[in-house]
Amino acid sequence: MGETGQLKKRKGIHGTLALIAIGVGLYYGLVVAPPDAYQGEVQRIMYLHIPTIVAAYVAFFLVFVGSCLYLWKKEKRDDILAHASAEIGVFLTALVIVEGSIWGKPTWGVWWTWDARLTTTAILLLIFIGYLLLRSLIEDEGRAASAAAVLGIIGALDIPLIHMSVYWWRTLHQPPSIFRPDKAPWENIAWPLLIPLIVNIVAFLILFFYLLSLRYRLGEMREAIKTRRLERGI
Amino acid sequence: MTPAWGFVALAYGIVWGAIVIYLVALKRRYRSAEVELNRLRSSEVTENNDKK
Fold it and tell me: What is the value of pTM for the model shown?
């Protein structure tokens, strides 16, 4: 089997794994998990909301790593990683805001409020939309990649701010449920609710890495196309 | 269906709908790049053979 054939087979296995993980996640989130004592069925949105933001954080962490490496070594693959990860991160952050808004209406009585957690998340989304726009607006590719890398690093620094915003400001948003310094997740959430959450976080991470592998390969192919066209003067 | 389930259905519907649309769009972009790259590679091979 050739290199392309092996790559396709790997992608097929990864895609199937993502599909199975999503199916299991949906089953746990919608069927296995009991309704929350206070929030009732609406709490099931958390099995989407928390996994999506965890995957978005991983995406922006990879933008940070890729951007630092690109500024240091100027290797194209690091820029491709940062760009691919930023695009998926923007998509996931937009979903997080939509999910939070749908959960907020029946729970808080409003679709949106200028709460510190919500506002810092919206800022994160705007920074990375700016990151994608910046790349398309600067014609010189090297300059675009360097400028985007600087913005990517600055943007990723908003993540600790988002996470700590519920401690630093008086907010409507509740404190972190799983990633908190003072308590282990199982001390904060009952196991029947925690297990579906963990299953869904794993499912979203598998899906994220599947999307990233496709988007990264797309970036590599586009780079190869550009190089070939330049070489041949097309 | 209680109003609570309506919000759950709305959230799951929007999120999974958006993910499917993004995945389909990504696969289309992937395939079109793959086709373009293969076209460039095969024309390179043809040009090299012609030179020989």
Answer: 0.92
